[in-house]
Amino acid sequence: MRAIITFHGIDNKDSVLSYSPALFETLLGSLEACRLPVCSLDTLLEGKTEHGVALTFDDGMQSVFRHALPVIRDHRVPAHVFLTTGAVCGDNQWPTQPNDAPCYKMLNWDEIEALHATGIYIESHTHTHPDLRQLSEMQIQEECEKADTIIEEHLGRLPRYFAYPYGYTSEAAQSISTQRYAGSVTTKLCYLNSNDEIGLLPRLDSYYLKSPWIIRNLDSALSHLYLGTRSLLRSVRGSQ
Ligand SMILES: [Zn+2]
Question: Which helix (H) or strand (E) holds 35?
């Protein structure tokens, strides 16, 4: 079983974007206990393993530094942060954010540099977190170019992976991201399959990984069935 897990904030807020620090610790402990290795995206996607999980954090929330980093360091596992570069030092109230979205404080560059120094990969999530379906090819290029340049200027490393903001993509966005990055992730709720397109990789949202049972049995037939059903319900409702 291979899967990419999506997190946003690691904190105790009562929000779909939050995963509690205690549960995060439990999840990493359970993966270790059932010998499911936490891998980098490179390892997971380049056919080096048939068994593993990658951890991804979208947006760049400050709680990743405060609450995820100590656990990641303790467990000595890799992770990837998809950073919205225009929100660094600010909050997540970018123009396309729905009005009822909870407000989160974002990472500053000292914290991002500390994450990078620990071996956490800083990846691209555009500069302003737009809905890419609304943008022209040139605007999408500019969003990616700006984010990548800022990350390279600060860290000396270009992002290798990309997360579509809100999981929304278009033909143009997919074609640009495929040219620029080694892989791009969506919000499609699914384990990885051998026939996945590298520019449209599915992930498991940690929102669905909150029960102790599913955390301990992520690779069980029942978990596959549960997440498959949730995915189907989401697509019926029209959300990704
Ligand atoms: Zn996002």
Answer: none
What pLDDT shows up at residue 239? Answer: 55
Q: How large is the average pLDDT for residues 18-38?
A: 94
Which pLDDT does position 183 carry in this prediction?
A: 97
Cα 18 to middle of ligand 1, angstroms: 13
User: 47-55: long-range contacts (C-beta < 8 A, 24 or more apart)?
Assistant: 49/2, 50/2, 51/1, 51/2, 52/2, 53/2, 53/3, 53/4, 53/5, 53/218, 54/3, 54/4, 54/5, 54/78, 54/79, 54/80, 55/5, 55/7, 55/79, 55/80
For residue 163, the CA-to-ligand 1 centroid distance in Å is 8
Give domain 2-237's CATH superfamily: Glycoside hydrolase/deacetylase (3.20.20.370)
Q: Which residue has the tokens 């899967």?
A: 3
The helix (H) or strand (E) run that includes residue 225 is helix 221-237
Q: What are the structural domain ranges in the chain?
A: 2-237
Give me the chain's average pLDDT, please. 94
Distance between Cα 32 and ligand 1 center (Å): 28
Q: Contact at 8 Å (CB) between 94 and 129?
A: yes
- Bridge partners of 18, per DSSP, are 9
Centroid of ligand 1 to alpha carbon of 61 (angstroms):
10
Tokens representing residue 24 in the block:
């995060």
Residue with token string 């997360």: 163
| DSSP 8-state symbol, 211 | S
C-alpha distances in Å from residue 46, one per residue of 40, 52, 68, 121, 145? 10, 12, 26, 17, 25
CA of 128 to the centre of ligand 1 (A): 10
